[in-house]
Amino acid sequence: xxxxxxxxxxxxxxxxxxxxxxxxxxxxxxxxxxxxxxxxxxxxxxxxxxxxxxxxxxxxxxxxxxxxxxxxxxxxxxxxxxxxxxxxxxxxxxxxxxxxxxxxxxxxxxxxxxxxxxxxxxxxxxxxxxxxxxxxxxxxxxxxxxxxxxxxxxxx
Length: 156
Hints:
Order of helices and strands: EEEEHEEHEEHH
Largest sheet: 5 strands, mixed
Number of helices: 4
Oligomer: single chain
Low-confidence stretches: none
Radius of gyration: 15 Å
CATH architecture: Alpha-Beta Complex
Shape: globular
CATH class: Alpha Beta
Strand content: 25-35%
Distance between the termini: 32 Å
CATH topology: Nucleoside Triphosphate Pyrophosphohydrolase
Number of domains: 1
């Protein structure tokens, strides 16, 4: 049994377009070909869905009015990060994140997406087939991405 206090609270969004493809961005801070869905930490007192919309807009430029929630993942998901990254990111305070995930529909146009945000996290973005997600993410998040797919299987 692990202590959840060792996990930073976070959220993530599996964003689908009209063709049921998933939005992913290539991380700026990773030399490998690492792509991920929008995700991040919750601010103190922030509701998870509100945090997910904030993170989505901060990372992709997609305004909340262009997003329709489809489903909440049936469980919170957890991942551990390598020690070297944990020390760099959070000075060892957390060993990973525990996240609420949401499935949502993007109702805007690709021209509404702008990854050149105030604090850019991605160098490129693309729409991909959902089944490809576990192979695109960094290895330490693969099991979580498989669980995301399983949790949203009836919709994707």
